[in-house]
Amino acid sequence: MSTATVTSKGRITIPVAVRTALGIDFGSRIEFVELESGQFMIVPAVIPIQTLKGVLRKPLAPVTIEQMNMAITAIYKDYFLTVHSEN
Hints:
2 helices; globular
């Protein structure tokens, strides 16, 4: 398990092994995805959101932000479990 220390300015240095596993380098953007209360997953933000425009059709019924966040979290959980169960 890798660890990092938070500085007084709220910054951390991501360990080399973690950066390598995520495929991130200097200048890369990462996202913090909340899995459960107090538990987060760090994922590389590799696709600009603008490229996703038009990929999905409009929902038949309005969707709340909370429902969207729950769906995104479920997808990341599945992805996280799949990636780490293969290793």
